[in-house]
Amino acid sequence: MKNWSETYFTRIKLTKKQHKENNVWFEKTINNLEDNRLLKVPTLGKFFNKQGKETDGYGNLKYDYFVADFSNIKVS
Q1: Which domain of life is it from (predicted)?
Q2: Burial of residue 33 (number of CB atoms within 10 Å: 0-12, 13-18, 19+)
Q3: For residue 1, which of 27, 52, 63, 70 is within the disulfide window of CB 3.0 to 4.6 Å?
């Protein structure tokens, strides 16, 4: 998903470089997920599957917990 950051980080003002870095991180992270695992992005309160699709995060799937530090970013 090329515009993942731009799609999900709409309330946080990020630079183009920050969006690009988020997009690269997301692609690398989901590519490393096992098929039966989910990626949890706590900042968004969302789960994503290996295909990069948002999912409810429930069921029998386990998730990998990744935390990004957004402490220096102001929410508008």
Answers
A1: Bacteria
A2: middle
A3: 52
How far apart are alpha carbons 32 and 49 in whole angstroms? 11
Q: Which of 46, 38, 34 is nearest to 4 (CA)?
A: 46
Q: In terms of pTM, does the model score above 0.85?
A: no
Cβ-count burial of 63 within 10 angstroms (0-12 exposed, 13-18 middle, 19+ buried)? middle
Residues written for the chain: 76
